[in-house]
Amino acid sequence: MAGTPEFIAIEEHFMEPSLAQYLGKAASPPAAVSEKLYDFFERRIPEMDAAGVTKQVLSHQSPGSQRLADDVAEEACRNVNDALADVIAQAPDRFDGFAMLPTNLPEAAADELTRAVEEKGLKGAMVHGLNHGEFLDAERYRPIFARAEALDVPIYIHPSLPDKTVTERYYAPFDQTHHAMTRAGWGFGVEAGTQAVRLILSGIFDEHPNLKIVLGHLGEAIPYLLVRMDEAFSRDGNRPVNFAEVFRRNFWVTTSGFFSDSALRCCLDELGPDRILFAVDYPYVGSKPGVDWLKAYPMDEAEKAKIASGNAKDLLKL
Questions:
Q1: Amidohydrolase-related domain location, by residue (predicted)?
Q2: Which single residue of 178, 220, 274, 278 has CA 20 to 30 Å from 266?
Q3: CATH number of the domain that 179 lies in?
């Protein structure tokens, strides 16, 4: 249809059998989801076509590689990245991808990021939640972020289940009666948002001013809180930090799983149209509702085209 923007969706998940063996129950979601996670061509592309999605940027589903034992992590990540590159090679006009990294081995993770980008053509990396219970602002993870900056590729911070102690103290017993309490309903956003906040407060963006970070779900509530956070972190007694400036300069947010007019308006007001990218969160969310929502959203068509695909092309060099 004339005037319809191209749609590139950048948080779209898959599962790789060579990694699934290490993930236990996490590798066995409901059958309707599992079938789509392991599929690339028979169901995924027809659903993309029906929705109007030109390309998916694929990433391994949570919990990813952040809980893998050191003795298997490097090989598992290489295998997943190689398998993903093979899928992309079969349909390069429909797929690109983010690498998995053995983050508990930061130097090896940095080297794997280089290999995945320079040899396999992947567009950055995705990390899933805490690394063996640690937040990624710890000094020992700096090699990963330094390498991402040097390669000029983003790191996508994706949620995973909260730490067990947090679940026990903050979310129980509702984690049993309402499973979304620790997942998309609340816990996911709190955890991923906290990762981002800690990275800013750590000073990593002073060391690496060109580091690029992506957050899903329209920024894990940070755009809504940004003005208050910036003011609070600027008060006397805090180590100086230009919180809002760093967030607006070094972060991008995606629409994954969050097709809300009011939330998008907030992000546009706080970040502007150049920092928002379209995503679906496939197969946990349907592609067509996301496309139809953004198509219908009342905004300048040139800015809408940026969100639909233009910003992804610029950020990921597609």
A1: 40-318
A2: 178
A3: 3.20.20.140
